[in-house]
Design goal:
The protein has about 575 residues and is an alpha+beta fold. A 6-stranded mixed beta sheet has the order 4-3-8-5-6-7. Bound molecules: iron/sulfur cluster (SF4).
Length: about 575
């Protein structure tokens, strides 16, 4: 099932609520030290790391660690503490340099990638949190808990999707998305990868190219859809450039490097994925920045003269140039030149800076939303995904209500959750806003329980978050029903919404860039021709707010909804600030 760790903060990347979830073993180790939740306030005057060893808590000097990547930091802390069981959550060079979309790396290799948690730690001079716990976890009813755990593992293993997940992980989506029209080829010019490169980007290609060691990314997962591999140097055209050990990339890394930047080479993709985890940088923002520069190069808007000026050397931004991607990443991480400064705060602000320098409007070419990069996959044909992107509480992101319901036409899932099948009917807006709202509570509930959502999102009816209610009671002794687990998710979604309302966000901010709203799909492929998002987004947004119990005109929460969720205190605060509908 997996045990995930969630980092929550006010996000420097998009200036709103933020959280980011990672694998690794940091969270479970923190729990074994006796802590459910850790709150870090204030800032240190010099570089430090926080060391927690059960009840002992101390700040230690981190000047020696400053400048190291995440892997090296993880190893160096273990060495200094002479303890190979210590787990860490640390930042790399990106967080030190206050890149606003810097991430946090757990256990030296798994990223809490989105929203800029690494910049928050960097601003506190907090290089890492290291933890060792030996207390174990007391269970109220250990026998029942172990029995329920075994049953749950069996249920997960019996899911029809699980065999393929074990073999392919999230990169199985590459092939699926070529059939439904959801790969962002050359910065959204095509919605599928061209036929001649599909074989290079498939999960089967990855599995056949490298020597792979499957591994679970987090404690307690029996699926092990992640993997380590070794690149010998002969496997792909770019393999000799990236010899050495690496991590199996997730789908969005393949979409960003392979499709968006048109570099269909698994050696380059996995290098980029591992390197950005080590620099602790959100690969979606930085990969998007490079792909956007490629788009401008292709349009003749930037030339090598510009790169000479901004980077100190002429760089070609032709589609597929892996050197350009390397140089953009390094420019941003190390803030070593003007291009790095342009994109220090992500794509949206970076493009605005380019506009000033070039003196021409450029945002119209950019696919962004809520102040930053979208998740780099083509989502225009899928109204649930576009609604998710527009309303997400943590920047432009589909993860809040991640679902395959309209991508795969899952009418049975729609029927089970909404009592009607239409959310599973492709390319029409009906019930897509409703599904986004209800599924958002389900995903939030999974995240509250702390389990991995990648399998669950495919099958929220066979493995609903309420399945964990009995186990929750067995371990805590607190009575819990499936309905209460669902309501916990709904409460979490409402607290996030309230946080953003207090920052002044309303319905007018739940929108997307002009290019995604108005540009018809250029390469219809498996989707109906001429579809534009502005045809349906207003409809799905209104439906989404209604199913949330929020005011459809402003998107603001209603007192009756918050009181029904026992969030009366939240309602009172919003009322005082004029951000509640009474
Ligand atoms: S299913 Fe994959 S992503 Fe989820 S916890 Fe297991 S290894 Fe990690």
């Amino acid at each position: 099932m997996g045990s995930k760790t969630k980092f929550t903060f006010k996000g420097p990347a998009y200036n709103m609520f933020a959280d980011s979830v990672a694998g690794g073993a940091f969270g479970p180790m923190l729990r074994w030290a006796g802590y459910d939740h850790l709150v870090v306030t204030g800032a240190a005057s010099r570089a430090v790391y926080l060391y927690i060893n059960n009840d002992r808590v101390e700040l230690r000097d981190a000047s020696r660690l400053w400048g190291m990547g995440a892997r090296e930091t993880h190893k160096a802390i273990r060495k200094e503490l002479e303890d190979e069981e210590v787990e860490t959550a640390c930042i790399g060079q990106s967080g030190e340099n206050r890149v606003t979309f810097a991430s946090i790396t757990s256990s030296g290799w798994r990223a809490a990638g989105r929203c800029g948690g690494g910049a928050v730690m960097g601003s506190k001079n907090l290089k890492a949190i290291a933890v060792k716990g030996t207390k174990g976890i007391g269970a109220s009813d250990p026998q029942a808990f172990f029995q329920l755990s075994l049953e749950m593992i069996e249920r997960v293993q019996a899911l029809p999707i699980i065999e393929n997940f074990k073999l392919e992980g999230t990169i199985q989506a590459v092939e699926l998305y070529d059939t439904v029209g959801s790969n962002p080829w050359k910065y959204y010019r095509g919605i599928v990868n061209p036929a001649d490169i599909r074989d290079k980007l498939s999960a089967k290609a990855y599995n056949s190219l490298f020597k792979i060691r499957p591994v679970s990314c987090s404690t307690g997962c029996a699926t092990a859809c992640s993997a380590f591999h070794r690149i010998e140097g002969h496997e792909t055209p770019l393999a000799s450039r990236y010899r050495g050990p690496g991590d199996k990339p997730e789908y969005l890394a393949v979409a960003t490097v392979g499709s968006l930047c048109a570099i269909p080479d698994y050696a380059a993709i996995s290098y980029f994925y591992s390197a950005t985890n080590d620099y602790a940088l959100d690969f979606l923002e930085v990969g998007h920045a490079c792909a956007f520069l490629m788009e401008l190069w292709d349009k003749g808007i930037i030339t090598s003269q510009d790169s000479l000026e901004w980077m100190g050397e002429p760089v070609s931004f032709e589609w597929g140039n892996v050197e350009a991607l390397e140089k953009v990443v390094e420019s941003v991480v190390f803030q070593r030149n003007q291009l790095g400064e342009f994109f220090r705060e992500g794509v949206y602000k970076g493009v605005q800076r380019l506009e000033q320098v070039k003196g021409v409007p450029l945002l119209k070419y950019c696919v962004y939303g809520k102040g930053g990069s979208v998740l780099n996959e083509e989502s225009r044909p899928f109204p649930t995904w576009m609604t998710n992107h527009a309303v997400s509480s943590r920047g432009c992101c589909h993860m809040r209500s991640v679902t395959m319901v309209d991508k795969m036409g899952l009418t049975d899932v729609s029927q089970a959750l909404l009592g009607r099948p239409e959310a599973g009917t492709r390319f029409v807006p009906d019930l897509k806003g409703a599904f986004s709202a209800v599924n958002e509570h389900i995903v939030a509930a999974y995240n509250c329980v702390g389990i991995c959502i990648v399998k669950a999102c495919f099958d929220p009816i066979q493995l609903p978050p309420g399945s964990y209610a009995e186990a929750y009671t067995a371990i805590t002794g607190v009575p819990m029903t499936p309905e209460e687990i669902y309501l916990a998710g709904r409460r979490a979604a409402n607290v996030e919404k309230a946080f953003n309302s207090r920052l002044g966000y309303t319905r007018k901010d739940d929108t997307l860039s002009e290019r995604w709203l108005k540009e018809p799909l250029a390469d219809p492929g498996p989707t109906p021709a001429g579809i534009t998002v502005s045809d349906y987004l207003d409809h799905t947004l209104t439906e989404y707010y209604l199913w949330q119990g929020w005011d459809p005109e402003t998107s603001l929460q209603k007192r009756e909804t918050l009181e029904m969720l026992d969030l009366n205190g939240v309602a009172d605060i919003l009322a005082k600030e004029g951000m509640l509908v009474e």
